[in-house]
Amino acid sequence: MKRLIVLFLALxxxxxxxxxxxxxxxxxxxxxxxxxxxxxxxxxxxxxxxTLRCLKCQSQSIADSDAPMAGDMRHQVRTRIxxxxxxxxxxxxxxxxxxxxxxxxxxxxxTTWPLFAGPLILLAIAALLMWRRFGxxx
Amino acid sequence: xxxWRFFLPLAIFLAFLGVAAWQLTQPKDEFVHSAFIGKPMPQxxxxxxxxxxxxxxxxxxxxxxxxxxxxxxxxxxxCAAEAPQLAALKAQGxxxxxxxxxxxxxxxxxxxxxxxxxxxxxxADDLSQLQLAIGSSGVPETFVVDGxxxxxxxxxxxxxxxxxxxxxxxxxxxxQ
Lengths: 138, 176
Fold this sequence. Notes:
The structure holds 2 protein chains of 2 kinds. Chain A has helices at about 1-15, 40-50, 70-80, 85-100, 115-135. By secondary structure, chain A is mainly α. Chain A has a domain at about 25-105: Helicase, Ruva Protein, domain 3 (Orthogonal Bundle). In chain A, helix 2 (about 40-50) crosses helix 3. The longest helix of chain A has 23 residues, at about 115-135. The radius of gyration of chain A is 24 Å and the shape is extended. Chain B is α/β, with parallel strands linked by helices. Chain B has a single domain (about 45-175), classed as Glutaredoxin (3-Layer(aba) Sandwich). Helix content of chain B is about 40%, strand content about 20%. Chain B has helices at about 5-25, 60, 75-90, 105-115, 130-135, 165-175, and strands at about 45, 55, 65-70, 95-100, 120-125, 140-145, 150-155. In chain B, strand 3 (about 65-70), helix 3 and strand 4 form a beta-alpha-beta unit. Chains A and B meet through helix 3 and helix 4 of A and helix 5 of B.
């Protein structure tokens, strides 16, 4: 029985690992999976990587993705932060090339301002209604 | 209370429903378009990705003649499907330079001997650095770069046979 289970597990792993097509065979970029030696710098890099979108797998951040391109982006983020660049400067660099879409950090812009203004307007209307209903009596 | 004020919330809700329904029927654009169109190519110099073609640097793009910059890889399946169209573009006089993403020289050589080599130069982009620097998000992609090294157009995905005349037109526009 034990041997059967081992055989079954071996077969399952084979099925999972075999079909890796349309991926390159190059080793990952040096800093794709290696953290920076300085924990403070690594923390800054991590914060940025968690809020940059993987372009190959568009619902993941580059910190979450194993796509080679995401690895290359992590390498670039880590080496540039190690060289003293500000994370927000790197984010802007990415947004200059891929648009707002590449960043997960919410930003007020010409298209997104109603998302921020909407709740405030609704709150103001609610406050006005409440005041008209109850405020004047007291 | 006036009747219209009574029905106002329902009207707003229906309007919201209408907008949502309309949006759901619109085709979604899955592509991430480069925001670098109209901007100059960055400084770069890449080693040769194949033995029989030189590498690629910014100076090669600034020789006064517009070019197609094809971003591809030997491990990319649509790139193989695109090969006949690149050959057709080359045959019709389009200068093409290649950027091989994360590729090994032996794989590049095998791909080119199998599918043909339309490239005047092929640079190796081992860390996707040039790709990231010009806002390209995958392979294959084809950029039209004018004679001053300014990006004029981006085509995402493999070039279909029906799109060859359009690409030639974009190249011609870049030469004006």
